[in-house]
Every structure is written in structure tokens, then in C-alpha cells.
Amino acid sequence: MAEALERARxxxxxxxxxxxxxxxxxxxxxxxxRYRSPSESSRLREEFDCLKIxxxxxxxxxxxxxxxxxxxxxxxxxxxxxxxxxxxxxxAPKIDALLTDVYANYQH
Length: 108
What we know:
By secondary structure, the protein is mostly helical. The protein has a domain at 51-88. The chain is 50% helix and 0% strand. The chain is built from 4 helices and no strands. It has helices spanning 2-9, 38-48, 50-60, 66-89.
């Protein structure tokens, strides 16, 4: 990414970036996932969880201390909890707003 960013900033054109991701869940809600075993799913979560990988790398490179990561995690949980609480406490939208923002409007 650093190389692609440098190329773009130097005016040398765009880059193609390939990113690979591991799916931890099925293709849809209720997918029985008969195409992989429970042990494979567990292994994928252990080996490819991006948050675990990030945490290990940051700690190994001594970019942050464990206590700092715990503080960030706590802040993130608190922010999500506050958003969920606000959503649950909000009034239900009016029926005439049902179709608002369903489709983007690209007219200028």
C-alpha cells in the first residue's frame, strides 16, 4: 500500500491492490455450511482473525502496550454500546419515511 500511495502521489498512475479475506460465516444467514467442517471454521478463526493478527503484530513491534490496546478496546465497546442504546431508545420512524434513502440520487 505504501508503494501504491507513493506512486499515486507522485503522479505515476493508479495501482491494482489485491486483498484476500477469510469468511467466518456462511454465504447467507442460515447457511448450513456443509462445505467445511466445524474444526476448519475454528482453525480459520484462530489463524486468520484480523484483530488477533493486528494485536500480535502491534505488541511484537512494540507500537503499543497491552494496556493501551485494552483501553482502545474498552473505548470501542463503550461507543458501540452507546450507539445501540441510542438506537433502541429512539422513536420509530414515521411510515412516510419508509422509502427514504432506499435508492441513491445521482442527479446533479
